[in-house]
Amino acid sequence: YMMQAKRILEVGMFTGYSALAMAEALPEDGCVVACEVDQYVADFARHCFDDSSHGSKIKIEVAPALETLEKLAAAQESFDLVFIDASKKEYVDYFKLLLDTNLLQPEGIIAVDNTLYQGQVYLPQDKRTANGEAIATFNRVVAEDERVEQVLLPLRDGLTIIRRKSN
Fold it and tell me: CA 86, CA 124: separation in Å to the nearest integer?
């Protein structure tokens, strides 16, 4: 609501709680495209959405997230806000695809969950799990990318807010 977003992409929907919360903040002509890999979970979420006056703003895409992102990019879709909370090992791929294909609008925002990943990002590399290493790599990639500016908020398991620069 604060950024007046109209188009939101959620990478990793699960039960749909955050998708519905974002849909509630959208104007009537706004849209959330939610990526979910599991049909059972997508059906559960759709049932919940159908009970809400804002549920019609949510379109669920059931497929691996990278496939959905590539499909959206091929259709030249773009989004004001992207929320990522899916396969940690693919965070870097999501990030690069969003920027390289212009799925994220100039000055658009990416909010990324779990960027402190149980504190593992602070551990020596040989002490991290595969997901912990993936998140540490993601944080480094984002910090080094000159197309964006970011802040990592140490709330719960970490939330990074990334803003795409205009130029």
Answer: 24
Whole-number pLDDT of residue 127: 95
Mean pLDDT by 10 residues, the chain (167 residues): 95 96 97 98 96 97 98 98 97 98 96 96 93 97 98 96 92
* CA distance between the termini of the chain: 24
As a whole number of angstroms, the distance between CA 125 and CA 79 comes to 34
Tell me, what amino acid is at 59? K
Question: What residue has token string 């807010």?
Answer: 161
Q: Are strands 31-36 and 58-62 parallel, antiparallel or unpaired?
A: parallel
- Given this model, what pLDDT does residue 44 score? 97
Residues 122 and 79: beta-carbon distance below 8 Å: no
Phi and psi torsions of 81, nearest 5° = -140, 135
Q: What is the Cα–Cα distance from 167 to 162, expressed in whole angstroms?
A: 15
